[in-house]
Every structure is written in structure tokens, then in C-alpha cells.
Amino acid sequence: MKKEQIPNLLTIGRILFIPIFIFILTVGNSIESHIVAAIIFAIASITDYLDGYLARKWNVVSNFGKFADPMADKLLVMSAFIMLIELDMAPAWIVAVIICRELAVTGLRLLLVETGGTVLAAAMPGKIKTFSQMFAIIFLLLHWTLLGQVLLYVALFFTIYSGYDYFKGSAYVFKGTFGSK
Length: 181
Hints:
Layout: H1 6-27, H2 31-57, H3 63-86, H4 92-116, H5 124-141, H6 145-169
Helix pairs in contact: 1-2, 1-3, 2-3, 2-5, 3-4, 3-5, 4-6, 5-6
Function: This protein catalyzes the committed step to the synthesis of the acidic phospholipids.
Main location: membrane
Transmembrane segments: 12-29, 35-54, 75-99, 105-123, 135-161
């Protein structure tokens, strides 16, 4: 295997962890199965950092990676949040806000590329959002409820703030869309 392939293989691995994660939470509703799911989610989350780090370090950033890496992150996090609703560990309204923001920012990214080739890079609020979302999921699955809930509300705040920040910074793409001004 060539080292150039490793970041993309890590991304694919993250996607393949999702059905395993869902299966474990679906067939076993016990603290033990939640702990196993938390471990799987944590490993998958670590690959998010690792694939990007290796791609930049080895200068092997690819079009597949640019597309699949953020998609894998969103699929993993959204699947986990939906499962947390099923397990009554997260309020549906918070998960709805998070999922709507993720889809809206993904649409914005596509629009920016389509209209001018601009790539919307992850800003610090977005990185804090991702970090707090992932840790909220892990701590909730570990039944560290207070810390998990605090991180869930931190994630909610940064989800909304980073979404606002991305749209505010990209408002130029909507000029003239809603009338003349």
C-alpha cells in the first residue's frame, strides 16, 4: 500500500464504522453496548484528525479526500446524534438544529465552489463545533450525563455560531438573489 492511499483509506474506514456503530446500539441497549459504541465512535473520530494530518504532512491531498472526508464526518456525527435520540440521550430539537446546520453549510460549500471555485475552509468555530459534538456523543454514550449534556449545549452554541459565521462571510454569493440592493 502506498502512503498516498492511507488518508483516503482512513476516511473510508470511518464510513465503514458507521453501520457497525449503529448495529451495536440497535441490538444492545445496555451500558456495555453503549461503551463499545463509544469506543467505536472515538476510534472513527480519531481517523478524522489522522487522515487530514497525514494528507497535509505527506502533501497527498486529493479531490476524493476533499469530498469524502467532510462527508464521512457528517455521516458519522449525524448517525450518532440520531441514535442518541432513539436512546433518549439527546433532545430531538438540538439534533434537528445540528443536522440542519450541517446540511446548510454543506450546501453553502457546494454553492461557493459552483459560483466561483471558492473552497470554504474550516474556521476555528467550526473546529470547536466538531470537537464538542464528538466529545458530547462519546460522554453521553459513556453515561457521563452531566459532562455530555454540557458539551451538547456547547456544541449547539458553536453549531449555530459557526453556521452564522460561514454564511456571514459568504453573503456575497447571495447578492441580488432576493431583489435589488
